[in-house]
Design goal:
Blueprint: E1 3-8, H1 15-28, E2 34-39, H2 45-52, E3 58-61, H3 78-84, E4 88-91, H4 94-99, H5 104-116, E5 120-125, H6 129-133, H7 137-148, E6 160-164, H8 178-195, H9 198-203, E7 205-208, H10 217-221, E8 228-231, H11 238-247
Parallel strand pairs: 1-2, 1-8, 2-3, 3-4, 4-5, 5-6, 6-7
Length: about 250
């Protein structure tokens, strides 16, 4: 089974810069070793859709509204994204939870709205440094998952990916160890097992994110229970990210 590789560009790249990026990435990606989802800014999605059409590169959005439509200034709906060709959406990223104070309840509503409109959701979970230092890592992960998937049917989990992203390792250069990642994957699958079934626990895709780079990607993405990676800053380097996507072992 191929690894799932997701690039989160965050608030980077103008549409013109994304045009150059996607032109090069689409031409150079062979799709043999990994399934790739690229998540540029909203403004770059139209040009990305045009350039990725007919290629193995899939598109994702970095956020989605919990509302279907209406007077919600500045929001982008799931149906708008779907019509544009987007297949995946990142939900519950620590940037959104911390900076924009998004609650577990809101994350859950966004997931339900996205799934209703045919999008796949990447649910981000992870602990802060304070949580880690006080031994609350697994309690935090459990709570975020249970609240994130609350009210979902088991078959809906086929369109949910859980990304373990310890906050203390995102963009800091600090890396979770192989043991950290494997233990987190065990907890994630245990929560799904207890909430749904053994099959759901086995089948759900679990990926890791947090200061991934060309040196640690091989070890961290091949941890037991891990099906891929969510990349941030490194995904902006088209040559480096292409090399990782094409040669991942």
């Amino acid at each position: 089974m191929k690894k799932l590789i997701i690039g989160n560009f965050k608030m980077n790249q103008t549409p013109e810069e994304s045009k150059a990026y996607f032109t090069k990435f689409v031409a150079g990606f062979n799709g043999n070793r990994a399934d790739v989802v690229l998540c540029p800014s909203y403004l770059s999605l139209p040009v990305a859709t045009f350039l990725a059409k007919g290629s193995p590169v899939k598109l994702g959005a970095q956020n989605v509204s919990d509302e279907e439509e209406g007077s919600f200034t500045g929001e982008v709906s799931a149906q708008m994204l779907k019509n544009l060709g987007v297949e995946y959406v990142i939900v519950g990223h620590s940037d959104r939870r911390n900076k924009f104070k998004e609650s577990d309840r809101l994350v859950n509503k966004k997931i339900k709205t996205a799934l209703k409109n045919g999008l796949k959701c990447v649910l981000c979970v992870g602990e802060s440094l304070a949580d880690r230092n006080t031994g609350k890592t697994f309690d935090v992960i459990r709570h975020q998952i249970e609240e994130g998937v609350r009210g979902l049917y088991e078959n809906e989990l086929e369109s949910v990916i859980i990304a373990y992203e310890p906050i203390w390792a995102i963009g800091t250069g600090q890396n979770a160890s192989v043991k950290d990642v494997e233990n987190a994957a065990k907890v994630i699958r245990k929560v799904i097992f207890e909430s749904y079934s053994e099959k759901a626990s086995r089948d759900i895709q679990v990926i890791y994110g947090g200061s991934l780079n060309e040196k640690n990607v091989g070890a961290l993405l091949n941890c037991a229970g891990i099906d891929g990676g969510l990349f941030g800053r490194i995904s902006l380097n088209v040559n480096l990210f292409l090399d990782i996507a094409n040669n991942l072992k």
